[in-house]
Each structure stands twice: as structure tokens, then as C-alpha cells.
Amino acid sequence: MSELATFAGGCFWCMVKPFDQWDGIIQVTSGYTGGHKENPTYQEVCSETTGHAEAVQIEFDPQIISYQELLNVYWQQIDPTDPEGQFHDKGHSYRTAIFYHSEEQRQLAEASKRELQASGRFDKPIVTEIVPASTFYPAEEYHQDYYKKNALRYKMYRSGSGRDAFIKKHWGKAKNVAELKQRLTPLQFEVTQNSATEPPFRNEFWDHHEEGLYVDIVSGEPLFSSQDKFDSGCGWPSFTQPIEQASTTEEIDITHGMIRTEVRSKESDSHLGHVFNDGPGPNGLRYCINSAALRFIPKADLEKEGYGQYADLFKNH
């Protein structure tokens, strides 16, 4: 049997995707709650006269994902210390709040708030409200799944509002920069950590044809196979697909006056390169990857290097 969770975290455009991507999530709906006006419109809520907050209501399967896990996701999307709104959106309608649907949810929410305060992650008090759930009014259709319908504007809004930078500062994976600078070459560090691009045709793997695995230079995570490598003529190693889709993430990149899709490694969050829709494979994709982000494991060394489970990829070659 499914359950509901309701969270307010500023603009609801930015609060859908972080929950929508988890197993056990049945539906995430953008809407309005916590006020006195029945069936409010977006314009009415923005006018700060309804008492409502922009919020998301999540239908989830507690057998697959717990309410505690949803709380953990929630805290990592917001600035819980701001009583005036969220990032550049100010006003009561942009407040943060947890609207609990049961006594158990209230207790879990209160405990998680105390734990966050005690963690010292923030140097100001946690001001997020924890209040009983009331009637939830779904927002207009154009607000639903906004991150899918308007991917570029969504990306620019998250970045421009300061939300992404705040989340990265407070919740980003901790990296030992000194250790990485010692372990990586200057070029490897700049590519993986600062999204630099190495020169075409003057990098290690652009014309490399040996059989084996290409793994993340930072984490060692397997990323690409020589079986999927092809000569695209671009001057960088190109692949039709990763070994596993879950090993990489994609982000819209609007730097240098272009709109591109950046590819990052899932485990280390390192910049790898970009993916384009002009490849020869069945999916029509070309993963254009910096050699400096990769380490090559020859087929003969897979077992010795701890990648023996991938030997079957080259069984018939």
C-alpha cells in the first residue's frame, strides 16, 4: 500500500527530479498546501495572499523506499536555515516545510531535524517547519514534471538561483584535493575536477586500439569498453555507450556559448566529456571522452587488476 510525503522547498520546479529518480517513487506532484485559499492558482500563491507554500506531494511504496530516506533526500535539496524563502525566491510561499501525514512521520521528521542541527553542517539554526499535512492542491499542468518539459530552462534556473552551488557546497562529495593533486597529473586534475578539455589528436587514447577496459582515473569505476570504441574523427576517444548506464550521469552544459550534454562519472563525480547524437551505434550516440579522465586496463590484465568479472566482454575476441 502506498503512502504520501509532502515537502515544501522553495520553487517546486526544483523539487521534483531529486525524488522522481528513486526506485519506489510512484508519482511526484507539484502543488500548493498549507494555506487558506481553496483551489489557488499559481498567480494567487505568488501574490503571497493565500498562505500556501509551493510544495511537492510524493506517492511512494514504503516497501521499497522509506520515509526516512525521503527525509534524507529532502534536506539535501534546500537551505533549511533561511526563514525568508529559498535562494533568490523570497516570500512565505517559498518557505521550507515538512507536512507530516501521520504521527510516525512527525516523529521521524523531528528526529531528522534535530540530527541535522546537531551535525554542525550549518552554522545557523534549522528553521524548517514541521506541521500537519492539509489539503494539497495540484498545480497547473505546465508546472508538472517541469524538469522534463523544459530541461534547459530548468537547468539554468537551478544554477542561476544559487541552489546548485549551495547543495554542492554543503552536500557535495568530499574530495581530498591535496591527495588528488598528488596522484593525478595537472591535466588529469584540471579535466576531472575543473571540467577542462584536453587538446584533440594530442591525447593518450584518441587513436588507441588495444582491447580492454577504460576506467575512471579517479575512482577506478569501469566506464567504457574497447568493444564500443570507434574512430569518430574528432580527435578524442569516442564510444557508442558506457558499459553500464548507471556508471555515468548527464548534465546540461551551457558554457562557452553552446548547449551540450556533459557526461560525468557517477562514483567520483568527475567530468568525463560530452555525449552527442551523431554516433554509429543503435542508439545513435557518441560519447566523446577526455583521455585524461580515463585509465586503460588491457584485456590480459583484467584479472590481475581486479576486473576479472569483465573478461566475458572480450570472450569471442
TrEMBL record:
EC number: 1.8.4.11, 1.8.4.12
Lineage of producing organism: Bacteria, Bacillati, Bacillota, Bacilli, Bacillales
Similarity field: Belongs to the MsrA Met sulfoxide reductase family.
Keywords of this entry: Multifunctional enzyme, Oxidoreductase
SUPFAM superfamilies: Mss4-like, Peptide methionine sulfoxide reductase
Name of the gene: msrA
InterPro entries: Met_Sox_Rdtase_MsrA_dom, Met_Sox_Rdtase_MsrA_sf, Met_Sox_Rdtase_MsrB_dom, Mss4-like_sf
GO molecular function: peptide-methionine (S)-S-oxide reductase activity
Ranges where the MsrB domain occurs: 177-299
Protein name: Multifunctional fusion protein
Highest taxon in the source lineage: Bacteria
PANTHER family to which the protein is assigned, alphabetical: PEPTIDE METHIONINE SULFOXIDE REDUCTASE, PEPTIDE METHIONINE SULFOXIDE REDUCTASE MSRA 2
